[in-house]
Amino acid sequence: MQKLEVWDVIPLAKDFKLVGITWVFRQKHNELNDVTEYKARLCTQGFSQTFGQDYSKTFARTGRLHSLKSSIAFSEAHKLDFQQLDI
Questions:
Q1: Considering only CA atoms, which of 54, 72, 55 is closest in space to residue 63?
Q2: Global confidence as pTM
Q3: C-alpha of 74 from chain center
Q4: In angstroms, rounded to a whole number, what is the distance separating the alpha carbons of residues 18 and 45?
Q5: Residue 21, SS3?
Q6: Which residues contact 30 (CB under 8 A, 6 or more apart)?
Q7: Angle CA 19–86–57, to nearest 5
Q8: Which of 1, 18, 38, 46 has a beta carbon 3.0–4.6 Å from 6's, enabling a disulfide?
Q9: Smallest Cα–Cα separation from 72: which of 80, 62, 64?
Protein backbone atom coordinates (compact mmCIF):
# COMPACT_ATOMS: atom_id res chain seq x y z
CA MET A 1 0.00 0.00 0.00
CA GLN A 2 2.87 2.33 0.71
CA LYS A 3 4.41 1.64 -2.72
CA LEU A 4 1.10 2.54 -4.35
CA GLU A 5 1.03 5.75 -2.27
CA VAL A 6 -2.35 4.90 -0.79
CA TRP A 7 -1.30 6.60 2.44
CA ASP A 8 1.58 8.49 3.96
CA VAL A 9 3.43 7.35 7.06
CA ILE A 10 3.76 10.20 9.55
CA PRO A 11 5.31 10.28 13.02
CA LEU A 12 2.93 9.79 15.94
CA ALA A 13 2.48 13.02 17.90
CA LYS A 14 2.98 13.00 21.66
CA ASP A 15 -0.09 12.22 23.77
CA PHE A 16 -1.81 10.47 20.85
CA LYS A 17 -2.86 6.84 20.89
CA LEU A 18 -2.94 4.71 17.76
CA VAL A 19 -6.26 3.22 16.74
CA GLY A 20 -5.93 -0.49 16.05
CA ILE A 21 -6.69 -1.94 12.65
CA THR A 22 -7.64 -5.32 11.29
CA TRP A 23 -7.69 -6.68 7.75
CA VAL A 24 -10.81 -8.55 6.61
CA PHE A 25 -10.37 -10.87 3.62
CA ARG A 26 -13.15 -12.50 1.61
CA GLN A 27 -13.44 -14.68 -1.47
CA LYS A 28 -16.36 -14.64 -3.89
CA HIS A 29 -17.32 -17.90 -5.59
CA ASN A 30 -19.34 -18.83 -8.67
CA GLU A 31 -21.92 -21.62 -9.00
CA LEU A 32 -19.14 -24.22 -9.32
CA ASN A 33 -17.53 -22.95 -6.10
CA ASP A 34 -14.52 -21.62 -8.03
CA VAL A 35 -12.97 -18.47 -6.59
CA THR A 36 -13.90 -15.59 -8.89
CA GLU A 37 -12.83 -12.60 -6.84
CA TYR A 38 -10.71 -11.71 -3.83
CA LYS A 39 -11.77 -8.81 -1.62
CA ALA A 40 -10.00 -7.09 1.24
CA ARG A 41 -10.86 -4.18 3.47
CA LEU A 42 -9.04 -2.41 6.24
CA CYS A 43 -11.17 -1.76 9.32
CA THR A 44 -10.35 0.53 12.21
CA GLN A 45 -11.08 -0.53 15.76
CA GLY A 46 -12.84 2.65 16.82
CA PHE A 47 -14.26 0.89 19.87
CA SER A 48 -10.83 1.32 21.49
CA GLN A 49 -11.25 5.11 21.62
CA THR A 50 -12.66 7.10 24.52
CA PHE A 51 -14.81 10.17 23.83
CA GLY A 52 -13.24 13.33 25.25
CA GLN A 53 -9.87 11.65 25.60
CA ASP A 54 -9.05 10.32 22.12
CA TYR A 55 -11.54 12.42 20.14
CA SER A 56 -14.05 15.19 20.73
CA LYS A 57 -16.07 15.42 17.52
CA THR A 58 -17.73 12.93 15.19
CA PHE A 59 -18.37 13.47 11.51
CA ALA A 60 -19.86 11.35 8.75
CA ARG A 61 -19.66 12.68 5.22
CA THR A 62 -23.03 12.60 3.49
CA GLY A 63 -24.22 13.89 0.16
CA ARG A 64 -26.02 17.19 -0.08
CA LEU A 65 -29.63 17.32 -1.26
CA HIS A 66 -28.63 19.91 -3.88
CA SER A 67 -26.15 17.41 -5.40
CA LEU A 68 -28.84 14.73 -5.63
CA LYS A 69 -31.34 17.10 -7.24
CA SER A 70 -28.71 18.31 -9.73
CA SER A 71 -27.85 14.72 -10.67
CA ILE A 72 -31.49 13.83 -11.21
CA ALA A 73 -32.06 16.96 -13.32
CA PHE A 74 -28.96 16.25 -15.42
CA SER A 75 -29.96 12.64 -16.06
CA GLU A 76 -33.50 13.68 -16.98
CA ALA A 77 -32.29 16.43 -19.33
CA HIS A 78 -30.03 13.96 -21.16
CA LYS A 79 -32.57 11.10 -21.10
CA LEU A 80 -30.31 8.93 -18.94
CA ASP A 81 -31.42 6.23 -16.53
CA PHE A 82 -30.97 7.16 -12.89
CA GLN A 83 -30.45 4.56 -10.17
CA GLN A 84 -29.71 4.98 -6.50
CA LEU A 85 -27.71 2.51 -4.44
CA ASP A 86 -27.16 2.32 -0.72
CA ILE A 87 -23.52 1.49 -0.05
A1: 72
A2: 0.45
A3: 26
A4: 10
A5: strand
A6: 36
A7: 35
A8: 1
A9: 80
